[in-house]
Amino acid sequence: MNALPKTMTAKTITARAFVPRKDDTRTLRDAFGRFATGVTIVTCDSDDGPICITANSFSSLSLDPPLVMWAGDRNSRRFPYFHKARHFSVHVLSAGQSELCFGCSRNAHALREIDHDRCENGTPLLPDCLARFECEQHAYYDAGDHVIVVGEVLRASMTDGDALAFYAGKYGQFARH
Ligand SMILES: Cc1cc2nc3c(=O)[nH]c(=O)nc-3n(C[C@H](O)[C@H](O)[C@H](O)COP(=O)(O)O)c2cc1C
Predict the structure, then answer these.
(1) Which of 116, 124, 134, 150 could lock 155 by a disulfide, CB 3.0 to 4.6 Å apart?
(2) CATH number at residue 101
């Protein structure tokens, strides 16, 4: 059998193997962070006004029926708003929307100060995103310290452009060409 190419051998040697430990979640978090993602803002309406959260756990899920998902930290102070809401919207951020990303990460009520529209069920809608998915809650699944939220897409929109990216704790961009 042929030997592995040199580059593959070198990568195998430098890889750091570990067993996830309760007293060291940092290392597992760093390994999870090797998965480059886009960044989304999820919004919902509430008795306290519009609520937002920055989330990179978003994923497309199903075409028929049209489903998407994201995962909310059950210890997050704002997650109860999303747990209660029947509708939510997911906004896929463009490369120029990093300020929106930071603002919605820091403050659940950031949309009080940010211009936005509402759809007929009251869910806040942000402009100028790469894609937007207006959803109705479809299912919740317990998943350790997170809850997987599945939404049925009632309406969607999209534009062209470069995407805001998140990798190893840092922001960048995915270029379309
Ligand atoms: C790039 C990025 C991605 C994030 N992704 C998620 C996520 O998928 N799910 C989640 O619950 N929180 C996520 N967060 C954290 C929330 O945006 C927010 O900072 C957190 O809910 C703040 O805690 P609080 O809700 O207790 O105020 C992410 C934060 C950043 C900056």
Answers:
(1) 134
(2) 2.30.110.10
pLDDT in tens, 67-90: 999 999 999 999 999 999 999 999
- Alpha carbon separation from 140 to 59, 69, 72, 77, 127 (Å, rounded): 15, 9, 10, 18, 27
Residue 124 CA to residue 152 CA, distance in Å, equals 17
Single-letter residue type at 11: K
pLDDT 10s digits, 86-124: 999 999 999 999 999 999 999 999 999 999 999 999 999
pTM of the model: 0.93
Tell me the residue range of the domain where 124 lies: 38-174
Instruction: Name the residue of 79, 100, 104, 105 whose CB sits within 8 Å of the most ligand 1 atoms, as the mutation to test its pocket.
Output: 105
| Number of domains, the chain | 1
User: Which ligand 1 atom is the nearest neighbour of the CA of 166?
Assistant: 1
Ligand 1 pocket (Cβ < 6 Å) reads 39, 53-57, 70-73, 76-78, 105, 108, 166
Residue 61, SS3 per DSSP: strand
